Amino acid sequence: MKKIIVACGSGVATSQTVASKVNRLLKENKVDAQVEAVDLKSVDRYMDSSVAYIAITKIDKEYPIPVINGIAFLTGVGQDAELKKLIEACK
Amino acid sequence: MQVLSSVVNYLLSLGAAIFVPIIIIIAGLIVRMKVKDAVSAGITLGVAFTGMTMLISFMTDTISPAAQAMLKSTGISLPIVDGGWTTMSTISWSWPYAFLMFPLLIIINVIMLVINKTNTFNADLWNVWGKIFTAVAVVAITKPHFGGAGSIACAFVVAAIQIIFELKAADMHQHRIEKLSGIPGVTCTHKMTFLAAVMYPIDCILKKVPALNKQFDAAALKDKVGIFAENHILGFILGIIFGVLARYSVADTLTLAIKAATALTLFPVITKYFMQALAPISEAVSDFMNKKFSGRTLVVGLDWPFLGGSNEIWLAVIYSVPITLLFSMFLPGNEILPFAGIINLALAVPAFLVTGGNLIRMIILCTVFAPVFLWVGTAFAPFMTDLARTTGAVSLKAGEMISNSSIDGPIQTYAFSHVFKVLDGNFIPLAILIVWVICFVLYYRSLSKEAQQETNN
């Protein structure tokens, strides 16, 4: 199973909301991947083990894995496009 | 009616870990969740409650003896254990009327949108607990005067006013948040932004000093010190400090440090289960609202973390840790020992918004307002301890008290709940309330003007 991470300030509230939603969407699309909510301060530690990073903050840094816009999952705007990108990254 | 009320009373007597899951299963079925998903969410919530109870006992058993030993060795008495926001949200959700806050929030938001008094749709249903928190304090203060039903009515009125202010604060911050975060179409509905209103007049004065308007390379600095804000590291350091102040032996200090690190590391882990259980309900509400207002472009109100990409916030948070510890020991009237609430975003985020990300002014504002959090944390300890005891959300030994050293929007939360102290002849909270509202109005006007200028240019 592939791992995807989503991060917020405490790794609890916002990130878990996104994780629950994306997990449901992936299941509906029959993608074998698990989204895990992590603490923003420890994101770098998960880079090797994950296939994509769902960010809910502005990203200035380069990451070795695809970065997905997490705000889309919170607002619903542009959600389908981001989900497509995410499913692509899981292949 | 008699039967119904005795059934309800029986369920309540079983404690929060039983009755709150029952409520969420019912709520889940109302928003048309599948039975198996609703039951799963309910049991997850029961697990979250029981897990938190375990962890909070572990924390108080670790911190309380150290606080007592510190009292003996240094003479500093800080008997209130700081459980942070995770503990406060657990206790808040255990209030029997907590779930009624969901419909209240939605109804007020819909009305405000329909009459064009706001452009914000508050999608941050997790922080419903922030309204419950204020409501709980209102009930505790007004119950002796208005009785059970009267105090609950009062609590919901105050919560309703808070919901309106949250929408207004979200409206006024939107353009500035878009500029700072680079994310369009969203704003922050979290009540932690309320503190910015009182920071505003002070920031106006600070802005006049040219030396304070310098910009910093916050990114480079954050990479160096950022590790201290990670829960396990911070918990360990706090444990060492407490152990040294308590004059523990080396072995005991190290044990205390590891236990403190354990508590801080596990709090978010358990709190995640709360989120998991509540997520389907908040999703259903979001979908409902999106459908209802599909023709209109709304700004979506979110919790603060989408601002967390700003290094200034983290630097201000890390700076506030030692400042808060120092204040806690010497500030008259403080009785809380900062621990789980010491990562104080409720201090750093409003400072970030009001200064527009100027680190020097943020740090000055954080220093000025750090004591407020300790005083308000102390003031809320009796209510939260009481509610925790009656609902069994947290098991505390006799004489143990629990609170939070980083209550969001402390001045507003204190003023809106304690204003009822006028009934006892105490007019200070009322005066604070008036000052806060005046500051809010001034800040609102200044931000509206700024937004207008930006659209004109």
Automatic annotation (TrEMBL), chain A:
Its EC number is 2.7.1.-. Keywords: Sugar transport, Transferase, Transport. Gene3D superfamilies: 3.40.50.2300. GO terms for molecular function: transferase activity. It is an enzyme of class 2 (transferase). CDD domains: PTS_IIB_galactitol. Residues 2-91 form the PTS EIIB type-2 domain. The keyword Transport applies. This is PTS sugar transporter subunit IIB. The lineage of its organism: Bacteria, Bacillati, Bacillota, Clostridia, Lachnospirales.
From TrEMBL, chain B:
This is PTS galactitol transporter subunit IIC. Residues 8-446 form the PTS EIIC type-2 domain. Pfam families: EIIC-GAT. Keywords: Cell membrane, Membrane, Phosphotransferase system, Sugar transport, Transmembrane, Transmembrane helix, Transport. It is a multi-pass membrane protein. The keyword Lyase does not apply. InterPro entries: EIIC-GAT, PTS_EIIC_2, PTS_sugar-sp_permease. The chain crosses the membrane at residues 12-31, 38-60, 95-114, 126-142, 148-167, 232-250, 256-275, 313-330, 336-355, 362-384, 427-444. The keyword Transmembrane helix applies. It is found in: Cell membrane.
